[in-house]
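Request: Mind sharing a record?
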Amino acid sequence: MKDDLGEELGTKIEKAALAIYKKCYEHAKANGIIIADTKFEFGLDENGELVLGDEVLTPDSSRFWDASKYEVGGSPASYDKQFIRDWLKDNGLAGDSSIKEIPAEVVEKTAAIYKECQTKICHK
């Protein structure tokens, strides 16, 4: 990244990403959640200042695991969009851009997973 963006901007992004992640990691950990992975999208505003764009640490941009169910080498059920990905794969629809509707029960289950994650992370 620093080769592409330059040392100064690359370092700025690195520090910002690590600071955001550290704060969120500590909060999630205190609430029994492991942040398995996440993404941050940065950009520059009209004044050339670094800004954080898009969503941050949501079930659509991150994978969250229940720490009480985690085992080294395992892949516990996650509080994120993996449920919908698995449903698409199981039904031969992964990568099918013609899908217009997902069954209500799948949408409801996905919403319940997101709500459970929100409740766990936000209760403190």
Summary: Strands lie at 33-38, 41-44, 50-53, 62-66.
